[in-house]
Description:
It is a single chain. Helix content is 39%, strand content 24%. The chain is an alpha+beta fold. Helix 8 packs antiparallel against helix 9 (196-210). Mean pLDDT is 94; it is low at 61-69.
Amino acid sequence: MACPCWHEPSPDDAEKLYMAACSANLMGCTDSYANIILYRKKYKTQICYCGGNVLRKYGTLEATEKDISSTRALYGFPIGTGDMKTAIDFLNKDAAENGMPSAFPLLTDRQKLYLETKMPNKYTFTERRDDSDYVYLTKSLAELPGGKYHKKKNHIAQFMRKHPDVFYKPLTSGNAADALEIEKTWFDANEGTGNYDKEAEYDIIYEALSLFDVLNLTGGVLYADNRPIAMTIGSAITEKVADVHFEKAVPEYDRDGAYAVINQEFAKTMIKYEYLNREEDMGIEGLRKAKLSYHPELLLAKWSAE
């Protein structure tokens, strides 16, 4: 099948990407239209539309060798409900034209099963625990029901007592500058200058706030002591699942429990979605402990295939 040319994803692709994820009933943060667009420069993402699916590849040959330290062509599993075999054959052909074996770095269990059953003995699989997505019931994060959330509720209550003037506002283009101020404070406090990942994230957050309305993003800002102290940015993956892309707090308020407060306040505004995907822990021990403490409904496993 002849497919259209690869191109860098842009806001013009947002609706098609979103509808493709909805049609396939996906839950993963890597399938979020907002992530595909916002991280396009960091991962040198290219997409094309082929036979009812969205195809993705990451990095040029030069970038793959330099940045990912591999000799593989990296692809996203096709998004959509088109003919998967045709789409994967096209990706394998694209890899062969670059003289490299193809690889899918972030597969879900369902996508892994497809390759195992439809293309047996062709791929080698490796589990990527650090990249597994934490998926929660939105209602649980909003209400913190039962004894298992007792510590969370106490932490929030302590924050409220220490900062009685605290209030939450939905993030809009009108208070985007407040969210960026929080990111700047966090960036400086965490020695972001000179750190590739933190600098790239700063640029992505800046663009997300610049394109807030264009990309139909959502979020919130927490205020206390007459200043913005925490922020979060999210978007829909499908009609049932929303993604929390970024969550940042000013360090001195982090210690008091600002993350617990904004986590709950944002969840309250997202109750129309059954699930909230809070993305991966990247193998960071403290982050893993924090995400597990909120009792995920599902740990969306990720695999690489080559």
